[in-house]
Amino acid sequence: MAQSKRSYCPIASTLDLIGDRWTLLVIRDMMFFGKQRFEEFLESPEGISTNILANRLKSLEDLNLIVKQPYGNHPRRMNYQLTERGQSLRPVLVAMIEWGLEHIPETMVPKGD
What we know:
Strand order of the largest sheet: 1-2
Number of helices: 6
Structural class: mainly alpha
């Protein structure tokens, strides 16, 4: 059953999909730091918990923002990659970086792990 919209505002609708505390950070890690594996996301300095990460990865897959593919000999080990739709969020993240650097003291562009 499709979920009804709370609003037809594109900002509200986008926030309903990716506006929680963690989703854009997972996308950031994939987009800018090349992270692909569950364990790699757990190493990010923000300290996402395993259950939240698993939930966000599933949600991103359901939204067609990422795809997962098995790697290695273990069928439960997955690589996650951004889809074209996920990559289309790049200008949004770049705008957030630029805004944060300009308006939030003591912020900096994070270095890859």
